[in-house]
């Protein structure tokens, strides 16, 4: 971990292809510990990690994920049906990497499931006509800490949420309580390929000063 | 930024008291850039930052926040009404730090408002009986990057969400489009007091292996 904070955070990209090598227990513990350091509303820490390395468990969970991923691919291709062929090809190639991950989930060294107890979350946007997102404020900072800490160790991972579509079945496989939900599934491993660079909008497009400018 | 990634992430606590010193533009830009590096679903980056340093704007927004904070304090004290006096005193002391911040929001050097466009978010848990949280997966990783990057610069901040209760008024003050919502308000500045240590549950309490164990 000789890299600077800046080096780590500027190169933490989603990694979906891994070498089969196992993750040493001490390395994994440092990554999990970084997640625990994240903030949450009232410091209630309304979430837990279920760290799955058992191949049978990964197979069962991967089988759910692969079905949801296929629907997601179909949804994206349908949305892009009127796009130029070049854009469609690029989209299809990007989605193929995800398909490969979905089909090989049982080969990923570790898949971390994040589960939470909604009863401990103070939601402030559930009165609005838009989708409520604020519950995630106590949950996803920990997932991001996990991803950047993985990167600091040379590992790679990707934040996925499709598995929430199959929450009841995930609960049955993982055995968490009825009141708890699943909000993220993060495969991690030693990357095939490199970390960074990141494709993001320029800072000037992402920032407004004092007031929104059109 | 000579500290290691580990030093930064293990000491990034919520900071609610700041010195009045301004934040140099280059430092602030590095912090904002780190937020932009966060992942989002399909890399759609469905969010923007409105960086408020204008005192009049901070006064207007702080006036909304202070009202919501007072309700939050009342809610917490009511919930703890049957707790031992010592626990109530500790809770009240903790909340007083937040009250001080709420009342002095206009003195905080910079307050970053995070806004988002729900139409760009693929939500996978809106069919469930529990509160939907998955929309936050494309939003709060960026907020956490901002907080850890601020810490790497020696700055402190805190993730707050109460302002979402007043979304319509916030939209009027900040001028963002009708389709956009506000999901976080993060005051940042040079801390009074120290970074870290963090009070969190032990790792063993936060992690299950392969299956939930009671």
Question: How would you state the average pLDDT of chain A, rounded?
Answer: 96
Tally of discrete structural domains of chain A? 1
Run of helices and strands of chain A:
HHEHHEHEHEHE
Total of helices of chain A:
7
Low-pLDDT regions of chain A: none
Question: Could you walk me through the main structural features you see in this protein, from its secondary elements to its overall organization?
Answer:
Two copies of one chain form a homodimer. The first copy, chain A, is α+β, with helices and mostly antiparallel strands. Chain A has one domain (5-206): NADH Oxidase (3-Layer(aba) Sandwich). Chain A is built from seven helices and five strands; from the N terminus they run ααβααβαβαβαβ. In chain A, strands 1-2-4-3 form a four-stranded antiparallel sheet. Chain A is globular. The N and C termini of chain A lie far apart (42 Å). The mean pLDDT of chain A is 96. The interface between A and B is large, with 93 and 94 residues. Strand 5 of chain A pairs parallel with strand 1 (47-52) of chain B.
What's the short version?
The structure is a homodimer of 214-residue chains. Helix content of chain A is 40%, strand content 14%.
């Amino acid at each position: 971990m000789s890299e600077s904070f800046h080096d780590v955070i500027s190169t933490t990209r989603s990694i979906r292809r891994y070498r089969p090598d196992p993750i040493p227990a001490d390395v994994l513990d440092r990554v999990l510990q970084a997640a625990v350091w994240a903030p949450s509303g009232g410091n209630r820490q309304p979430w837990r990690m279920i760290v799955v390395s058992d191949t049978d468990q990964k197979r069962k969970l991967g089988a759910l994920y692969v079905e949801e991923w296929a629907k997601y691919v179909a949804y994206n291709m349908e949305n892009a049906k009127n796009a130029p062929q070049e854009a469609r090809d690029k989209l299809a190639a990007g989605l193929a990497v995800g398909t490969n991950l979905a089909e090989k989930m049982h080969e990923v060294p570790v898949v971390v499931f994040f589960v939470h107890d909604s009863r401990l979350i103070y939601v402030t946007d559930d009165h609005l006509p838009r989708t409520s997102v604020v519950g995630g404020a106590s949950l996803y900072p920990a997932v991001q800490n996990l991803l950047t800490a993985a990167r600091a160790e040379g590992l790679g991972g990707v934040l996925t949420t499709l598995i929430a579509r199959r929450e009841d079945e995930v609960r049955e496989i993982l055995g968490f309580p009825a009141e708890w939900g699943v909000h993220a599934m993060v495969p991690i491993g030693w990357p095939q390929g490199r970390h960074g660079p990141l494709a993001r909008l320029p800072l000037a497009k992402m920032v407004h000063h004092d007031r929104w400018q059109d």
